[in-house]
Amino acid sequence: MPTVDDILEHIGEFNFFQKQTFFLLCLISAAFTPIYVGIVFLGFTPDHRCRSPGVAELSRRCGWSLAEELNYTVPGPGPESQCLRYEVDWNQSTLGCLDPLASLATNGSPLPLGPCEQGWVYDTPGSSIVTEFNLVCADSWMLDLFQSAVNVGFFIGSMSIGYIADRFGRKLCLLITILINASSGVLMAISPNYTWMLIFRLIQGLVSKAGWLIGYILITEFVGLRYRRTVGIFYQVAFTIGLLVLAGVAYVLPHWRWLQFTVTLPNFCFLLYYWCVPESPRWLISQNKNAKAMKIIKHIAKKNGKPLPGSLQSLRPDEEVGEKLNPSFLDLVRTPQIRKHTLILMYNWFTSSVLYQGLIMHMGLAGSNIYLDFFYSALVEFPAAFLIILTIDRIGRRYPWAVSNMVAGAACLVSVFIPEDLHWLRVTAACLGRMGITMAYEMVCLVNAELYPTFIRNLGVLVCSSMCDIGGILTPFLVYRLTDIWHELPLVVFAVVGLIAGGLVLLLPETKGKTLPETIEEAENMQRSGKNKEKMIYIEVKKLDTPLN
């Protein structure tokens, strides 16, 4: 009996139906962007200083400019100018307009400093969760927690989505995640305090990446074998398009509540996919629902304008059921080569997440035009995707992957030594780093599935890719706390971990043109010259095994 892939060869592997569905699901990929990296705009931290009504009144009476007010009344420069204030009664009438603090200092001793007790003044025309909830100084860690919470949600959702999508179907899970994501996004926009905002952001994390992954699974199950890798890459290109749109929307809407509300509302439109996107016929067959699967296949054939041959009216699963092996976590570390693969892949997943999210967050702290910098750095993700397509079947996986990690690390290291006044050069280095780590992120997705034998392939991808969410949990604390010590210190850390990742990749075997390993023995022998027969399989789509760009 024919498989779904056999039937798709006759009714169209990537024709009108697949293109239409691909476009619709790519909208979900693009809409995931504000949740993954929206912290850059939602959590923007502008320059700030302690609020003092007495200072404002004295400045008005003396006719000071803003620069004069800051010079006379704010301690600094340095962190103390943002988190400390002079313990002075600014309402006393003895203070003059010319260096008012000079008469208060005795014997040249410095005036005492104290914490901000009446809030802060922020130098920004808009608002962010930082300015509204005063997530600065002693409470600055709460911004780190906000971004870590969404990554905790990513981790839990990603770990469970493989089972849920296999148990209840792709379409139902997609619609439920869309509804919960949209509802929690709106509730976050109207949250009355930080606690409720954090809870709703965590809920968004639980379902948003899961929905993104289900979209990937669906589109790869609708297309033919030859197109799976290409649609997988361009599904992530849609995420890049979302980055560009996010920069424009954030520029137009500098107030975080309106921004959150605006980027969330389109998710409700995705509920219309109930009528537009059918269930995966591959999943229906795996559940012995062949009649429903054949009905959907006939719908695909009709949409594509292709007749369904009478000889293809019966179906069988894509994989014959044979002796089943029960995968174990120990299988990932039991033998020497697979253990080496597992450790290197876990480190590279972690590195890709830390560098990708970390570079975006650090860019938001640069103090220049955040909107343009974000836009320019997003543009370089397009050539990254095309470079992958051009190189993986010509040069191979290992060398482009290693070079991309090393380029990202080297770009971070070079950025440390570029002077502030050479802004164009700093932006160029940042873009090179972003392009390198984007390529590395894409490559680890592909190679991870190719290094494990069949019976532990999904488990291997799931365990290793979970490290990207662990990296996402740690990245906010890494970026924001190290920046308090030295603004360029996160870049030094990124450089080190990126260069190490590139070196470790060279210890992995080349998988170009090699058959996917079926057994532990074949995986152990991959470092030697293996078979040259190419097996055109990008990634298994029945389980969760695809990361985020």
Number of domains: 3
Under CATH, the topology of the largest domain can be stated as Growth Hormone, Chain: A
- Structural class by SSE content: mainly alpha
How large is the radius of gyration?
27 Å
- Main β-sheet, in a few words? 2 strands, antiparallel
Give a verbal description of the structure.
The strands form two sheets. The chain has a two-stranded antiparallel ribbon. Strands 2-3 form a two-stranded antiparallel sheet. Helix 10 (170-189) packs antiparallel against helix 13 and helix 19 (370-379) crosses helix 22. It has helices at residues 4-11, 16-31, 33-37, 39-42, 53-62, 66-73, 80-83, 129-133, 141-168, 170-189, 194-222, 228-252, 256-264, 266-269, 273-276, 281-286, 290-304, 336-364, 370-379, 381-391, 398-416, 423-450, 454-485, 489-505, 520-524, and strands spanning 48-50, 84-86, 113-115, 120-122. Mean pLDDT is 84; it is low at 320-324 and 529-549. With 549 residues, the chain is an all-alpha fold. Helix content is 64%, strand content 2%. The chain folds into three domains: 1-42 and 127-306, MFS general substrate transporter like domains (Growth Hormone, Chain: A); 48-104 and 111-123, no CATH class; 328-526, MFS general substrate transporter like domains (Growth Hormone, Chain: A, Up-down Bundle), CATH 1.20.1250. The longest helix has 32 residues, at 454-485. The chain contains 25 helices and four strands.
